[in-house]
């Protein structure tokens, strides 16, 4: 049997150097039955011309509108489906792959027809032996977290394992999963979209796996990462959106509301958190917009 066709989908927004480096690492991967689609989100740094010059075999799609991480990637996901991809690899532009990464991901996915999504072991790019994510977990309160986060790799993740969700910076998805459960939910725009996608797949019986021998280095979300207020807005709104979409139990709603209201009060009343007033406002607006039923890009 021939190797399944893998089409990688990479979203670029003014990250020319990072995208070129990512494409080079894909080009040097040992897995050969692969194609690449780059989605360009209105870049003005010469990205499109540079990508076409350096990688003429890469398909570049210039997006007509910005529909966020979820909606933009869906353009590439649909294009890959139209091109009969067996697996679709949603990949951040600021990642670098080990040469055997793709081959190992595909091998694990092909080993069991019930495996619907496969992720690599993700490291911090600026600390190449420190783990960023060894897969995701969700506790009984529907709070999501990363296994192995900020741990030095000492072989503690040395075998494939089932996980509850996979970080969206590098996630290999079987086409049949998308045919059954759909692509990313573009109402989320950005943040929580991959977590919700994974929940949707698991609900339909698909297994999600991490292959730790497949390695990726991710430049985003360093240990000293300090998110902007936009992160606070979308995380707050989309957390509630996911709970509502999947009819989460009352306990999860109670925890989410308690944490949100406590944080709002703390960031408002305590002088030591004055520097977080922009985040407080973002948290408040995100919560309000969930209650108003507003989704997609934040208004204004």
Could you please describe the fold and organization of this structure?
The structure is a single chain. The chain is of the alpha/beta class and 300 residues long. It has two domains: 213 residues, Spore Coat Polysaccharide Biosynthesis Protein SpsA, Chain A (Alpha-Beta Complex), CATH 3.90.550.60; 64 residues. It is 39% helix and 23% strand. Strands 1, 2, 3, 4, 5, 6, 7, 10, 11 and 12 form a ten-stranded mixed β-sheet that branches. A two-stranded antiparallel sheet has the order 8-9. Helix 1 links the parallel strand 1 and strand 2. Helix 1 runs parallel beside helix 2, helix 7 runs parallel beside helix 9 and helix 8 runs antiparallel to helix 9. The protein is globular, with a radius of gyration of 19 Å. The model has no long low-confidence stretch (mean pLDDT 96).
What are the segments in which pLDDT stays under 50 over at least 5 consecutive residues? none
Q: How big is the Rg?
A: 19 Å
Helix content: 25-40%
Structural class: alpha/beta
The number of strands is 12
The CATH class name of the largest domain reads Alpha Beta
> Overall 3D geometry?
globular
Would you give the CATH topology of the largest domain? Spore Coat Polysaccharide Biosynthesis Protein SpsA, Chain A
Q: Which CATH-level-2 architecture of the largest domain? A: Alpha-Beta Complex
Mean pLDDT: 96
In N-to-C order, the SSE pattern is EHEHEHEEHEEEEEEHHEHHH
What is the count of DSSP helices, taking H or I runs of 4+ residues? Answer: 9
What does the main sheet amount to? 10 strands, mixed
* Percent of residues in beta strands: 15-25%
**Number of individual domains:** 2
């Amino acid at each position: 049997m021939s190797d399944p066709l893998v089409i990688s989908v990479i979203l670029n927004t003014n990250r020319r150097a990072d995208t070129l480096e990512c494409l080079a690492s894909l080009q040097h991967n040992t897995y050969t039955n692969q194609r690449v689609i780059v989605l360009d989100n209105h870049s003005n740094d010469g990205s499109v011309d540079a990508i076409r010059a350096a990688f003429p075999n890469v398909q570049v799609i210039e997006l007509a509108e910005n529909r966020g991480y979820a909606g933009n990637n869906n353009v590439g996901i649909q294009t890959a489906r139209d091109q009969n991809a067996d697996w679709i690899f949603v990949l951040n532009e600021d990642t670098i792959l080990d040469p055997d990464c793709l081959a190992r991901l595909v091998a694990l996915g092909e080993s069991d027809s019930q495996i619907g999504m496969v992720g690599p072991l993700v490291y911090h790019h600026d600390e190449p032996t420190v783990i960023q994510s060894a897969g995701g977990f969700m506790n009984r309160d529907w709070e999501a977290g990363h296994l192995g986060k900020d741990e030095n790799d000492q072989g503690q993740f040395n075998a494939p394992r089932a996980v509850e969700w996979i970080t969206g910076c590098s996630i290999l998805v079987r086409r049949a999963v998308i045919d059954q459960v759909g692509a990313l939910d573009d109402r989320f725009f950005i943040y929580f979209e991959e977590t919700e996608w994974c929940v949707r797949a698991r609900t339909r019986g698909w297994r999600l796996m991490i292959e730790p021998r497949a390695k990726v280095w991710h430049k985003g979300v360093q240990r000293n990462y300090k998110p902007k207020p936009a992160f606070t807005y979308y995380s707050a709104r989309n957390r509630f959106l996911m709970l509502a979409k999947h009819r989460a139990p009352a306990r999860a709603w109670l925890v989410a509301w308690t944490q949100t209201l406590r944080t709002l009060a703390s960031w408002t009343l305590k002088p030591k958190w004055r520097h977080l007033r922009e985040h407080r406002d973002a948290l408040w607006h995100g919560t309000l917009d969930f209650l108003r039923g507003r989704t997609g890009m934040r208004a204004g």
